[in-house]
Structures are given as C-alpha cells and as structure tokens.
Amino acid sequence: MILICVLMYIGFASGQKVIQMNYCSIDEDHLRIDCKYAISAESPEVFCKYTQGERLLDTTDPDEEQHAPFKNRAKARIFPGNNCRLLFKNLPMGKSNFTCNIKQPDSATASKTSVIEKKLLLPCCAWSILLQSYSGLLLTLVTLPMLLEIHWL
Q1: Name one GO molecular function term (predicted).
Q2: Nearest in space to 93 (alpha carbons), one of 116, 75, 113
Q3: Which of 74, 125, 63, 139 is nearest to 100 (CA)?
C-alpha cells in the first residue's frame, strides 16, 4: 500500500501544474486569459485547452476538435515562458467560468478554473496584470513611502 502511494506521489510530482491565471479585457467585449504553468522536464511537448464545462473553447491539441459555436470566437496559443493564452470574442454579460487545462502525453491533466465577471474586468496593460498578480508586492510598494515618513516624525 505504501509503495502504491509513493509511486502515485512521484507520478503527480513529476507532472505538470497550473500556477496562475490572469485575465483582462482587450476591447469592451474581448477577453484575454493567460494561464501560467509548470511542466516536468521529461517531456517538452505540452497541450493546452480552455473549456467552459463540457464545451471546448479551443485547444492546441490537433487531435481534439473545437466546439462549433466557438470557432470564430476563441483562439488558444502557447507562448514562451510556459504561458497558454486564450483570446475570446464577444464575452457575454455576467459571470462566466473558464478552465485552463494543461496536458502532457502520458500524464494526468492539470487544470484551474476562474470565474470572470465582465463588468469587473480591467483593461489589458502592465498595470492591470500587476494588480492581479502581485497585489501583496504592490501594497508594500505603495505603503513603503508612508511608513518611512512616519518613522522620520
């Protein structure tokens, strides 16, 4: 039993992992999602796909077919730095779930889901990505001058 647990742990530890999802609006109705992931060094080949429930928005896997209503609305691509990006047109009002799935051959799929509300989307720029990704660092940088002034009083 212990041997099985150890083998399963080694299998999962050597696989891929979704680290973070960032999202922003390109235009009023267009969404961009960046999915950062880590992969095992054993297999450089990786496939990325975005889903909404059972519906496949788009994928980089040539063996899977995109859900028909999304053929002209969604495009997934892999970029250097282990980043899978989805560009999604005509985002509806309200909340939508988007799941990023990362898969290496002969390995389990790693996934992460984000609930995105259209009216709360920030425009895509370095500042909005910084706000989503590094809020603790940003808070420190903003409050540091204030803390230094208090110290000098």
Answers
A1: integrin binding
A2: 116
A3: 74
* All structural domains of the chain with their residue ranges: 17-147
* 17-147 homologous superfamily: Immunoglobulins (2.60.40.10)
Q: Model pTM? A: 0.71
Q: Residue for token digits 């960032």?
A: 22
Residue 80 phi, psi dihedral angles, 5° rounding:
-55, 150
Q: Kindly state the tokens that stand for 121.
A: 């989307």
